[in-house]
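Posting for a labmate who doesn't have an account.
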Amino acid sequence: MLITTGMARKIPFAVRTLLGTNVPGLGFTVTYAPQADGVWFPVTFSTEFKIHVLYFFHRQLFLNAENRDFEKTHVTSRILEDQTAEVPTSPQPQ
């Protein structure tokens, strides 16, 4: 299963024009794969976008992460009743 995101709206025109600030292409891609017990788990995460700040700072960012050797954790837990411990008080000076 592949999920891709993107910005719902562009950065406002005034910010892009007057401040020279923009992040075109901002979005993420996540790939999910089923595990042996039927649980879907993310196996890759990636993004690629540009940053333009104040007309002079320009960078292009790439990120690609892969989840390998995933192993489901097996835990056992239980809820204990409320057991308030008595806190000893120091004797009052006389």
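Reply:
Got it, the structure tokens are right above this. The two ends are 74 Å apart (CA to CA).
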